């Protein structure tokens, strides 16, 4: 018996959802601000001149305000526009509601913190029973009802990439569909600005080279793209051929060790001891990660929240505590000014490579011994607690004072 | 009780000493001291003032200095006292040696030689042990101090060491302040000096609260066990008797031919010049008479060498800098009152004829004048350093130095620094200073009040030494025997004195020569060089008379098209010239003086009378006939400084000294001084003199005094105005006939009142086309040719001097560049520098579009090879490597790239683009103002000048702002009410839309603003293509300017 193959549309069907300016919409959704009232959302300290607008309400958009504007300009030019500080809790609650609601359509839901979601609707009951147009209208309507958001855009296509592009283009609150079989024609007309998950630097490079559309990208070889855009060239090569590349995973986390200065400390010696202790904690972390560092950053945070930092390089990469301590003290000398009291200081580094255990082949017996002790201390601290073994810098300093 | 304070600091111990010198001396007098030493830390800035103050108060001055290395006040320290005048020279030499050698200074080496004329006192055991092994042991004393437990402890160690070494003891209090109330201020200053906070200072870093000036009784109580140490202070004071020979000018000795004295040699050259200048002219006899009179005065005062040195520098400049078309005298300008002297005219230093210009020698030099002559010689800004080097080479490095200037704490800095040392953050300080300037209420808080009180106490304290813009000192013996020297700030390789002009340079008798920089001389040079390169022979350029009488020049000036022209390009000067219809040399000299603060009150009267005078109408009378010969040119108003001097001397019959005194007083008169006894006495003397000498009535004398006394503030002397007017006319001639070359030179020298985009807009308005940069033709500087200006490489962001030079050198040596690859191969450049070159259109003529060129560039530079290009072995041509479908930049992108990288647009015109702004729809243009007088209008433009003016008496401020639109400049006045309302948005370059009423005055138009709006300038709001179309179609408009706008090079 010949079983007719299911329609192609049902093989792959993706809906991308974009909640436009989610950070601003949640304020009206939770009735903190009146819907018609113009307001902007910020993530920084509004008293600082560097503070920029993060999200804009629809009312503020009509005034000509856009994300990235200086908050000082807003205060000067539109004094009646409210300035709200980002509410992560509301955003999270909304995201949970969105997630819960979208599960009613499909179990395959991927959602990111900025309010962008991807639904795999292929072979789901709703996609079988409804036309694509009705389907996305229903999703949009029900989602708005469930979350009380007003600006939700949806793109529907058999390609993930195109669905994302459509959702972005449909903002703030439209729905767009790419009919089956028109994907290639659509892609050729897409501009590079519409392609998702590309860094601003990469966009600037493309713009500078006069590459504005995906069809122009397609004519370039993979090597040519990598040569000009670095690792993102690889991603561009796939994107321009309609292959969706998810955003890069989060960058490797830095090792950061911070020490707070408990009081207005006047004693440079005491601060140096604190730095020494910080280095001790930092080296402990390096050993736990079993890694080497090739770059060290010392950051000093002053009581007025100003911060200043400086970095140094290690060639070759190292995990040697004495070397790191020496360089940390050098950095401290260049950075520290006595005029403003310190709030904290921290050391930061990206763990570069795992230790091969071959770097110390020609170490002296003394160095070898010191390293062995350090390793043992780390092991002990891992088992019990960091403070189970105290650093001796205080005792040394006290002895020196007595002398 | 016998005691002399031998270790005392004044405020010239920067960031530690508190008392001013007069207060210190007065306090010493009050304490009954008969002698006092001043020993500032590593510094001799106050010694001469201290010497004269002590002499006035009958106290014996002991001149000394404290040498120290560290911030720590207790660290190795040595006090040196001069026994006599020779010892003062030794002090200067040691301090200079220490300052110039820096950390390499060695006490061992310095004191290995015997300093017979110095007393050495030290409180440092190490230093004592060191000096005891040197020949200076016989003049060595160990200093014991008893002001803290630490000093007592150190004193005990020192005393035992001194006994072992057989060195006598001396008691001291190391005074930093007058009484213990100053201790807090001392700590604040120490914290400022050490960039710490007050709470973070350690005990070693500040003096004890008991380090104040004490009398003998107190000191005897402090040192009951060391009576001999106190007696030794008197012994030392007796041994130190310095008699400085102050008040005599030390004229540098000029090398002369045999049997010639400076006077005879000057006479010889002056008469030689006189023959060249005047022989055969109607003024010959008068010139001889004047010359003889001047030479007599110069010889009597002994200033012949001064004139010869100025002549020597000027001759050198003429020989060194004279290029084609530039006559030797064009290399420098003698400005200021010195140009009054016919001697300088005859020596060829000045080009200003004192007879035809009726200049007044007595303003420059007279027998009553106490100060030496002051000739200010201007060089091109980039040639001044060569002139200084010449002086150093000619007179010897050890005999030449530059005068220092002392920078003091002013209100703002005092408050800022005080707030910082009390732990306020930068934000708090900024906000505090802002509120303090506005007089906010919270300033009455206790903390803030304490801060303000601290700031008040450090107000006026010296902070650091700067470099005088011109004052070069030359002496006969090494100058470091007269005054201590140090390196000039800013890393320049010059030496500056430690004593400034107000603290003793004049008393020391060192003669100052002012060598100054002037951008317009460089502009003139560069414009003439361009003409020479283009083989344009125009002898009228160097003929001043031809410039003065040239109708094009006269029209240019009287119609106010003088942007870029030295001295007459400011909006106020342009307006005054239009209103007075100024065209001639004399008129420009007067208007340029009247526009200064002292003359502004008379400008309106002058304009009214002068316009009538030009029509042959004279409807006013002189206040008194005796004023007619003095004020004829300016129609009975005071225009120059000489007018005041002449009125005082000739009408009121005062001596030159008195007349000069009144002039100087008027120059710096403050409101409070009007009530001073000195002012009232001068007024009475003046009026009495007018009545008795010239027969004025009481009422006329009073009116005349009111006129003289209202000529207050900054003003010019006639010779200064006239000297600069000569340069203005030369520049005007060039602008009138060779605008492209002239404006290119103005922009290349970064010189002028306005920014370079304003000059480019001016060039476009007068029909000069702006051509973009091309890699194979552009030079570093801007070049003008016929009716076009080629933009130079000098202003491209990210391309430094070295890269510019390398590009030009490679191109001239090995031929033009063929492609971007060729440039990258031949010239070592950073990738971003090449990208910037591409984006400003430098490679547009090589066959590829800008994106294509950048695409090729990336073939040789990868993201990780920014500095070292790797040339891949390609055999294909460039064109083959470029994809065919790269989109070229839009006009907007090109314009914005240029705006970012050059600071102005070449492909478009930012003024025309602003015309397309939605809010500029109903605005009128500058050129249309003439048709809308007394109407309310709206104008849009970029602000090019912005000057606030404080209205005295009303405690209000108004603002004058000049906008520029595509057709020209628009003057706008904001009265105090309007200015207060919009002050927050004014102060940037705009663009602004301003509504207001047009007013007219003597052919000048301005808008009295009613509302001001700052426009949002988003390129996305404007259709660049249409703007460019408008540029193409716009040809002429009904305007005083010609509007041939440049086509767009797209």
Mean pLDDT of chain B: 85
> In which order are the strands of the major sheet of chain B placed?
7-8-13-10-9-12-11
| Rg over C-alpha atoms of chain B, rounded to the nearest angstrom | 34 Å
Number of helices of chain B: 42
Residue windows where pLDDT falls under 50 for at least 5 positions of chain B: 1031-1050
Structural class of chain B: alpha/beta
Oligomer category? heterodimer
The stretches of 5 or more residues of chain A where confidence is low (pLDDT under 50) are 1-9
Average the pLDDT over all residues of chain A and give the rounded result: 83
Through-space gap between termini of chain A? 101 Å
Q: What's this model, at a glance?
A:
The complex is a heterodimer of chains A (403) and B (1050). Chain A has 403 residues and is an alpha+beta fold.
Structure description:
The complex is a heterodimer of chains A (403) and B (1050). Chain A has 403 residues and is of the alpha+beta class. Chain A contains 17 helices and 13 strands. Chain A has a five-stranded mixed β-sheet. In chain A, strands 9, 10, 11, 12 and 13 form a five-stranded antiparallel β-sheet that branches. In chain A, helix 2 packs across helix 5, helix 5 (88-102) packs antiparallel against helix 7 and helix 14 (268-289) packs across helix 15 (321-335). Chain A starts with 7 loop residues before the first helix and ends with a helix. In chain B, the strands form four sheets. A seven-stranded mixed β-sheet of chain B has the order 7-8-13-10-9-12-11. In chain B, a hairpin with an 8-residue loop joins strand 2 (60-68) and strand 3. Chain B has 1050 residues and is α/β, with parallel strands linked by helices. Chain B has 42 helices and 21 strands. In chain B, helix 10 packs across helix 12 (304-321), helix 20 (519-533) runs parallel beside helix 31 and helix 24 packs across helix 31. The termini of chain B are far apart. The A-B interface holds A 47, 64, 76, 208-212, 215-216, 219-220, 227-230, 264, 266, 302-304, 306, 337-341 and B 194-197, 199-200, 420-421, 423, 425-428, 835, 849-852, 854-855, 858-859, 862-864, 883, 885-889, 984-985, 1016.
């Amino acid at each position: 018996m010949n079983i007719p193959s299911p329609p192609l549309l049902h093989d792959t069907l993706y809906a991308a959802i974009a909640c436009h300016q989610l950070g601003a919409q949640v304020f009206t959704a939770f009735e903190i601000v009146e819907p018609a009232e113009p307001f902007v959302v910020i993530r920084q300290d509004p008293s600082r001149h560097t503070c920029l607008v993060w999200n804009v309400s629809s009312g503020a958009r009509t005034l000509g305000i856009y994300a990235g504007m200086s908050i000082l300009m807003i205060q000067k030019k539109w004094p009646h526009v409210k300035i709200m500080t980002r509410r992560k809790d509301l955003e999270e609650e909304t995201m949970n509601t969105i997630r819960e609601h979208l599960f009613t359509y499909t179990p395959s839901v991927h959602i990111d913190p900025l309010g962008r979601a991807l639904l795999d609707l292929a072979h789901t009951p709703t996609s079988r029973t409804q036309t694509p147009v009705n389907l996305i209208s229903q999703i949009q309507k029900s989602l708005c009802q469930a979350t009380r958001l007003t600006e939700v855009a949806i793109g529907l296509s058999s390609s993930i990439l195109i669905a994302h592009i459509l959702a972005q283009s449909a903002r703030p609150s439209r729905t767009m569909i790419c009919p089956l079989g028109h994907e290639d024609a659509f892609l050729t007309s897409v501009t590079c600005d519409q392609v998702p998950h590309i860094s601003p630097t990469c966009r600037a490079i493309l713009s500078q080279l006069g590459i504005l559309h995906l069809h122009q990208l397609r004519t370039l070889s993979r090597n040519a793209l990598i040569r000009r855009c670095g690792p993102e060239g690889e991603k561009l090569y796939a994107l321009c051929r309609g292959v969706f590349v998810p955003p890069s995973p989060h960058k490797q986390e830095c090792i950061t060790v911070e020490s707070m200065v408990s009081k207005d400390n006047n004693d440079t010696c005491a601060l140096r001891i604190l730095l020494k202790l910080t280095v001790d904690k930092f080296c402990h972390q390096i050993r736990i990660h079993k890694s080497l560092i090739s770059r060290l950053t010392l950051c000093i945070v002053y009581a007025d929240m100003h911060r200043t930092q400086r970095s140094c390089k290690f060639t070759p990469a190292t995990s040697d505590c004495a070397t790191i301590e020496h360089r940390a003290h050098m950095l401290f000398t260049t950075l520290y000014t006595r005029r403003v009291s310190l709030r904290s200081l921290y050391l930061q580094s990206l763990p570069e490579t795992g230790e091969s255990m071959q770097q110390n082949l020609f170490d002296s017996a003394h160095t070898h011994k010191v390293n062995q002790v350090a390793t043992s201390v780390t092991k002990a601290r891992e088992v019990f607690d960091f403070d189970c073994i105290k650093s001796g810098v205080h005792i040394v300093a006290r002895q020196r004072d007595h002398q | 009780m016998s005691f002399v304070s031998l270790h005392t600091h004044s405020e010239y111990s920067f960031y530690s000493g508190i008392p001013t010198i007069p207060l210190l001396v007065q306090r010493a007098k009050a304490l009954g001291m008969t002698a006092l030493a001043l020993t500032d830390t590593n510094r001799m800035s106050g010694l001469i003032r201290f010497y004269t103050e002590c002499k006035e108060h009958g106290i014996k001055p002991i001149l000394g200095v404290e040498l120290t290395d560290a911030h720590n006040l207790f660290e190795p320290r040595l006090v040196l006292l001069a026994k006599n005048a020779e010892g003062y020279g030794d002090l200067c030499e040691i301090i200079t040696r220490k300052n110039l050698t820096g950390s390499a200074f060695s006490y061992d080496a310095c004191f290995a030689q015997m300093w017979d004329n110095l007393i050495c006192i030290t409180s440092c055991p190490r230093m004592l042990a060191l000096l005891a092994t040197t020949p200076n042991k016989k003049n060595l004393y160990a200093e014991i101090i008893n002001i803290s437990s630490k000093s007592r402890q150190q004193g005990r160690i020192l005393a035992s060491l001194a006994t072992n070494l057989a060195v006598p003891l001396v008691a001291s209090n190391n005074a930093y302040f007058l009484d213990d109330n100053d201790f807090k201020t001392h700590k604040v200053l120490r914290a400022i000096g050490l960039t710490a906070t007050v709470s973070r200072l350690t005990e070693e870093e500040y003096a004890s609260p008991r380090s104040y000036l004490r009398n003998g009784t107190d000191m005897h109580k402090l040192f009951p066990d060391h009576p001999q140490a106190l007696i030794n202070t008197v012994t030392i004071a007796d041994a130190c008797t310095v008699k400085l020979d102050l008040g005599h000018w030390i004229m540098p000795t000029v090398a002369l031919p045999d049997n010639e004295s400076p006077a005879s040699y000057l006479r010889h050259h002056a008469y030689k010049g006189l023959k060249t200048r005047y022989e055969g002219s109607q003024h010959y006899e008068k010139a001889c008479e004047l010359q003889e009179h001047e030479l007599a005065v110069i010889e009597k005062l002994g200033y012949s060498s001064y004139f010869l040195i100025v002549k020597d520098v000027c001759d050198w400049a003429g020989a060194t800098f004279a290029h084609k078309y530039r006559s030797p005298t064009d290399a420098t300008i003698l400005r200021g009152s010195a140009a009054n002297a016919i001697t300088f005219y005859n020596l060829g230093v000045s080009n200003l004829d004192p007879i035809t210009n009726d200049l007044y020698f007595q303003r420059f030099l007279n027998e009553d004048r106490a100060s030496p002559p002051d000739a200010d010689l201007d060089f091109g800004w980039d040639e001044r350093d060569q002139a200084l080097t010449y002086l150093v080479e000619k007179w010897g490095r050890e005999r030449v130095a530059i005068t220092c200037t002392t920078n003091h704490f002013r209100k703002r800095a005092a408050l800022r620094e005080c707030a910082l040392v009390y732990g306020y953050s930068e934000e708090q300080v900024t906000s505090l200073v802002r509120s303090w300037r506005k007089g906010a209420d919270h300033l009455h808080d206790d903390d803030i009040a304490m801060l303000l009180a601290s700031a008040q106490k450090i107000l006026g304290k010296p902070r650091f030494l700067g470099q005088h813009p011109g004052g070069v000192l030359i002496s006969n013996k090494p100058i470091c025997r007269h005054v201590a020297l140090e390196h000039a700030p800013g890393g320049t390789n010059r030496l500056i004195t430690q004593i400034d002009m107000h603290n003793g340079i004049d008393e020391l008798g060192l003669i100052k020569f002012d060598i100054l920089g002037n951008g317009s001389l460089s502009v003139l040079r560069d414009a003439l060089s361009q003409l020479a390169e283009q083989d344009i022979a125009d002898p009228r350029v160097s003929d001043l008379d031809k410039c003065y009488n040239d109708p094009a020049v006269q029209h240019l000036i009287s119609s106010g098209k003088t942007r870029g022209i030295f001295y007459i390009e400011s909006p106020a000067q342009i307006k005054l010239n239009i209103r007075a219809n100024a065209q001639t040399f004399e008129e420009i000299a007067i208007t340029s003086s009247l526009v200064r603060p002292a003359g502004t009150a008379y400008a309106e009267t002058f304009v009214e009378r002068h316009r009538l005078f030009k029509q042959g109408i004279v409807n006013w009378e002189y206040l008194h006939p005796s004023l007619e010969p003095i004020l004829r040119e300016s129609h009975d108003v005071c225009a120059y400084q000489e007018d005041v001097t002449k009125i005082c001397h000739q009408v009121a019959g005062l001596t030159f000294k008195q007349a000069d005194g009144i002039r100087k007083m008027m120059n710096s008169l403050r409101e409070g001084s009007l009530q001073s006894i000195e002012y009232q006495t001068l007024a009475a003397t003046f009026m009495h003199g007018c009545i008795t000498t010239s027969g004025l009535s009481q009422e006329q004398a009073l009116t005349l005094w009111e006129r003289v006394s209202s000529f207050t503030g900054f003003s010019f002397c006639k010779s200064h105005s006239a000297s600069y007017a000569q340069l203005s006319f030369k520049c005007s001639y060039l602008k009138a006939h060779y605008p492209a070359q002239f404006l290119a030179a103005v922009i290349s020298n970064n010189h002028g009142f306005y920014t370079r985009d304003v000059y480019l807009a001016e060039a476009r308005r007068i029909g000069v086309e702006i051509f973009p940069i091309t890699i194979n033709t552009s030079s570093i500087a801007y070049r003008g040719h016929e009716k076009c200006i080629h933009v130079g490489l000098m202003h491209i962001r990210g391309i430094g001097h070295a890269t510019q030079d390398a590009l030009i050198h490679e191109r001239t040596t090995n031929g033009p560049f063929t492609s971007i690859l060729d440039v990258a191969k031949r010239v070592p450049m950073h990738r971003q520098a090449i990208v910037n070159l591409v984006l400003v259109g430098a490679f547009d003529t090589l066959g590829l579009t800008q994106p294509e060129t950048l695409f090729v560039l990336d073939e040789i530079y990868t993201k990780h090879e920014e500095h070292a290009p790797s040339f891949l072995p390609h055999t294909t041509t460039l064109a083959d490597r470029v994809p065919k479908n790269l989109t070229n930049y839009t006009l907007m992108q090109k314009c914005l790239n240029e705006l970012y990288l050059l600071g102005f647009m070449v492909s478009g015109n930012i003024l025309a683009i602003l015309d397309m702004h939605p809010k500029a729809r109903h605005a009128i243009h500058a050129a249309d103002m003439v048709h809308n007088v007394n109407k309310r209008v709206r104008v849009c433009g970029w602000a090019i000048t912005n000057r606030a003016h404080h209205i005295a008496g009303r405690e209000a401020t108004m603002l004058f702002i000049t906008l520029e639109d595509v057709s020209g400049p628009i003057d706008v006045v904001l009265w105090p009410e309007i200015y207060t309302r919009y002050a927050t948005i004014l102060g940037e370059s705009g663009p602004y839309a301003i509504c207001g009423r047009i007013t007219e005055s003597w052919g000048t138009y301005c808008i009295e603003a009613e509302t001001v709006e700052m426009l949002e300038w988003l390129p996305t709001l404007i259709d660049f293509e249409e703007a460019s179309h408008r540029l193409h179609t716009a040809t002429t408009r009904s305007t005083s300017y010609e509007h041939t706008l440049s086509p767009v090079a797209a």
